[in-house]
Design brief:
Length: 216
């Protein structure tokens, strides 16, 4: 259900996004990718100009300790200028489990003005939006990704999930698998005619539990 809700959010929000995938008037079109080094998820992350802070040029969503896709586009001057800034828009990930809950959440859109670091003239590459710990947001403009030795950002490498987050995911998965196992075991007692079907399902769940292994 959570995946369905997020798709609904994405489709609705995309309808409001404005993108310009070609450079105009001495500007270059850079792609945008979000890299999240925090344990919070965001259902909406976008970049806008300071003079039109609510007009998104490129947008996506990102999971905790994850990265978004490659979105088009953010228009930047071909030559970096001191004092350049962009506005990062973001909304926290939904906690709703049903469509009804989601419709009542009303998660606010937050705006953060962030300095644009120096980039090579005529070579904007990608605008990387970085979510860091303690609700900090930073930008990197580079054709290299975080794993590359030429990456100019302070935070090196791709995000690595914390042990707490890995345990949270493990607990959620184990809870779901355990519930499925108990449900199938109960059904096999009630409906003997479908014994093989339920036994196959039980065996499949047990395989998944074994693959899940021990809690991190």
């Amino acid at each position: 259900m959570r995946v369905v809700i997020k798709k609904m959010i994405w489709l609705l929000l995309c309808c409001t996004a404005l993108s310009a995938c070609a450079g105009m008037g001495g500007q270059l079109g850079a792609s945008m990718t979000v890299v999240n080094y925090s344990g919070k998820g965001y259902d909406w992350v976008a970049v806008a100009k300071p003079d039109t802070p609510e007009q998104a040029e490129a947008a996506d969503m990102v999971s905790p300790y994850g990265a978004s896709g490659i979105m088009c586009c953010v228009n930047l001057p071909a030559k970096w200028q001191p004092g350049m800034k962009l506005v990062v828009q973001f909304k926290d990930a939904t906690k709703a489990k049903t469509a009804a809950e989601w419709s009542k959440e009303n998660i606010p859109l937050q705006l953060r003005t962030v300095a644009v670091p120096r980039y090579a003239e005529g070579d904007v590459g990608t605008v990387w939006v970085q979510f860091l710990q303690d609700d900090k947001v930073a930008l990197v403009v580079s054709r290299y990704d975080p794993s590359n030795a030429n990456w100019p950002g302070v935070m090196k490498g791709w995000p690595k999930p914390s042990i707490e987050y890995r345990r949270q995911l493990w607990d959620q998965e184990m809870k779901l698998l355990t519930k499925d196992l108990l449900d199938f075991q109960e059904k096999i007692k009630v409906d003997g005619a479908d014994h093989k079907k339920f036994q196959d399902a039980i065996d499949s769940v047990r395989v998944q539990i074994n693959r899940l292994g021990k809690r991190p």
